[in-house]
Amino acid sequence: MQERLQELQAEALEKIAAAANLKELNDIRVAYLGKKGPITEVLRGMGKLSAEERPKMGALVNVVRETITTQIEEKQAVLEEEAVNAKLAGETIDVTLPARPVMRGNHHALTRIVEEIEDIFIGMGYQVAEGPEVETDYYNFEALNLPKSHPARDMQDSFYITEEILMRTHTSPVQARTMEKHKGQGPVKIICPGKVYRRDNDDATHSHQFMQIEGLVIDENISMSDLKGTLEVFLKKIFGQDREIRLRPSFFPFTEPSVEVDISCKICKGSGCSVCKQTGWIEVLGSGIVHPNVLEMAGFDSKKYSGFAFGIGVERIAMLKYGVDDIRHYYTNDIRFLKQFDHFES
């Protein structure tokens, strides 16, 4: 039995040394040290030995088993290291190869305009206010002097969800909500940027979804001259100090008086061309003095407080500033169009 154990040990060590991979090594472990292996068979035959021989034979079995186990562990460490080295060699990166080009992103044209306008008005002491895009009929219309039967509602063909809930048609509801929060106490000085929605046919100059930035100032002794001065500063910062502005009478239900604001044409310097339709002027936004009814509905005393409001179409400003001739370009995500704005400062 002793000779058998020595033979098994020599045989196992030879196979361990010759093992080429971890699978072969594991097979050797199972073959010699497993429950059905030859060493286990030797242990089972120890019952036939005398009481004096059993301890000696048991000690020998343990030595053989430990010797084989130790050799397997040492061989396993070698094979694992070889496997790691082989994997590293197969995954080597040639750092001398040219890298793949990384596409450089940039701000969207509309994002640039919104941020530029916000910076201008924040510099004049305004705060940025936001509100929900899904709005109630009250804040979208009634609080802005547009009751249910008012014909001016037809000016804004709306996306109604229910009879009282709709997608906001302008950012003026943010103004109404802000005035309400002030509980009749001025001053109020905000701009309200955001998306608005109207049922319109998409073409080069119209979209069912677009962006607005509306402004509101309420305080004592606010007049039309304050409005004109504010818009003059804003428009000259956006389009250049050489541009002139003019105000034309208009109508908006929430302001009285109301005015359209034009800037002088940059192409013809006011002499008339195809861009300005031979007028020398280009319309850019609408504005006016806040209607007393709007003030009163928000809790302000219209005899003590007055104010002005204006509405800026972000896409229109961007089209005029960047020379874009189709509003749909802003929403197609065509990388060729977007890359044109790389050279503009962020």
Automatic annotation (TrEMBL):
PROSITE patterns assigned to the protein according to its UniProt record, in alphabetical order: AA_TRNA_LIGASE_II (PS50862)
EC number: 6.1.1.20
Record-linked InterPro entries: aa-tRNA-synth_II, aa-tRNA-synth_II/BPL/LPL, Phe-tRNA-synth_IIc_asu, Phe-tRNA_ligase_II_N, Phe_tRNA_ligase_alpha1_bac, Phenylalanyl-tRNA_Synthase, tRNA-bd_arm
HAMAP family per the UniProt record, alphabetical: Phe_tRNA_synth_alpha1
Name of the protein: Phenylalanine--tRNA ligase alpha subunit
Chief location category: cytoplasm
UniProt keyword terms in alphabetical order: Aminoacyl-tRNA synthetase, ATP-binding, Cytoplasm, Ligase, Magnesium, Metal-binding, Nucleotide-binding, Protein biosynthesis
CDD domains according to UniProt: PheRS_alpha_core (cd00496)
Listed cofactors: Mg(2+)
Residues binding Mg(2+): 256
Location relative to the cell: Cytoplasm
BP GO annotations: phenylalanyl-tRNA aminoacylation
A GO cellular component entry from the record: cytoplasm
Gene name in the database record: pheS
A GO term, aspect molecular function: ATP binding
Cofactor note: Binds 2 magnesium ions per tetramer.
PANTHER family (UniProt xref): PHENYLALANINE--TRNA LIGASE, MITOCHONDRIAL, PHENYLALANYL-TRNA SYNTHETASE
Catalytic activity from the UniProt record: tRNA(Phe) + L-phenylalanine + ATP = L-phenylalanyl-tRNA(Phe) + AMP + diphosphate + H(+)
Domain Aminoacyl-transfer RNA synthetases class-II family profile, chain residue ranges per copy: 111-320
